[in-house]
């Protein structure tokens, strides 16, 4: 594997995954990963552009940003790309009226979307809302449509909270001259690389040692945490 200077040369922006990189969710909102608050602050003081992305689909973007700010992060809603607001744009552009199978915590994102006479289904990590009754209702809506449309707010398999790994439903992102920093070897690293981006994997969150021997995806580098990634970026990026 090439030296860090070669791997990070020319990077002008950083795209940070949130869960498993900045913090681990859990009771009381979760806890920041050691050094991550300071690492974000250092990035923002540098010449690198910083944006955040998440596949969080149980919290509205506003609530998520509020949580992160309470944990000490310098972050605003405008800096965060989240699946629910993106889905709302697609729904409005295509004239779609969704039947929502989503968590109550994210339902507010769809308040300005017409949900009468649904002609599509939007599914997210609904948690306890994934009951037989609710799943069957979504199925019936799709089966009654001539051209069924199903929109998922993610396709990750799991995520990490302080209590352990939790099932999930991953998101896509794209950036120019940027590098992705994430904890998911397939969703974060693989997804970024398919978009032509470089990607580092942190050994926090859902990382597992076997990720470094993944048969299909190899990160452009592996770091112990976001703090180490920032050390390397500030030393080698934008050269």
List keywords for this structure.
alpha/beta; six-stranded parallel sheet; 239 residues; three-stranded parallel sheet; single chain
Radius of gyration: 19 Å
Please state the overall shape, judged from the principal axes of the Cα atoms: elongated
Q: Mean pLDDT score, rounded?
A: 86
Distance between the termini: 19 Å
Give the number of helices. Answer: 7
Name the poorly predicted regions. Answer: 156-176
Would you report the number of β strands? 13
Strand order of the largest sheet: 5-4-1-11-12-13
What characterizes the major β-sheet?
Answer: 6 strands, parallel
Oligomer: single chain
Structure description:
This protein is 29% helix and 20% strand. It is an alpha/beta fold. The strands form four sheets. Strands 5-4-1-11-12-13 form a six-stranded parallel β-sheet, sandwiched between helices. Strands 6-7-8 form a three-stranded parallel β-sheet, with helices on one face. Residues 156-176 have low confidence and may be disordered.
SSE inventory with pairings:
Elements lengths: L3 H5 L4 E5 L5 E2 L6 E2 L3 H10 L3 E5 L7 H10 L9 E2 L1 H12 L3 E4 L18 E4 L8 H12 L6 E3 L5 E4 L2 E4 L10 E5 L2 H10 L3 E5 L18 E3 L2 H11 L3
Helix pairs in contact: 2-7
Give a brief rundown of this model.
With 239 residues, this protein is α/β, with parallel strands linked by helices. Helices cover 29% and strands 20% of the residues. The strands form four sheets. The chain has a six-stranded parallel beta sheet, sandwiched between helices. Strands 6-7-8 form a three-stranded parallel beta sheet, with helices on one face.
């Amino acid at each position: 594997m090439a030296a860090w200077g070669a791997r990070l040369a020319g990077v002008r922006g950083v795209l940070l995954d949130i869960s498993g990189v900045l913090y681990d969710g859990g009771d009381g909102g979760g806890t920041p990963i050691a050094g991550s608050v300071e690492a974000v602050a250092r990035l923002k003081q540098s010449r690198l552009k910083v944006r955040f992305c998440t596949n969080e689909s149980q919290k509205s973007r506003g609530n998520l940003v509020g949580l992160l700010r309470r944990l000490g992060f310098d972050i605003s809603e405008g800096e965060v790309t989240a699946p629910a607001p993106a889905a709302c744009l697609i729904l409005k552009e295509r004239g779609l009226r969704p039947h929502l199978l989503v968590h109550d915590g994210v339902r507010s994102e769809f308040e300005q979307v017409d949900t009468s006479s649904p002609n599509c289904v939007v599914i997210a990590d609904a948690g306890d809302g994934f009951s037989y009754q609710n799943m069957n209702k979504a199925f019936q809506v799709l089966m009654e449509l001539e051209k069924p449309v199903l929109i998922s707010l993610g396709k990750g398999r799991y995520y990490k909270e302080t209590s352990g790994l939790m099932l999930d439903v991953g998101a896509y992102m794209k950036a120019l001259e940027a590098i992705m920093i994430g904890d998911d070897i397939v969703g974060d690293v693989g997804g970024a690389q398919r978009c032509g981006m470089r990607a580092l994997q942190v050994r926090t969150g859902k990382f597992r040692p076997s990720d470094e021997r993944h048969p299909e995806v190899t990160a452009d580098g592996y770091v112990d945490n976001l703090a180490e990634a920032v050390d390397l970026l500030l030393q080698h990026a934008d050269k």
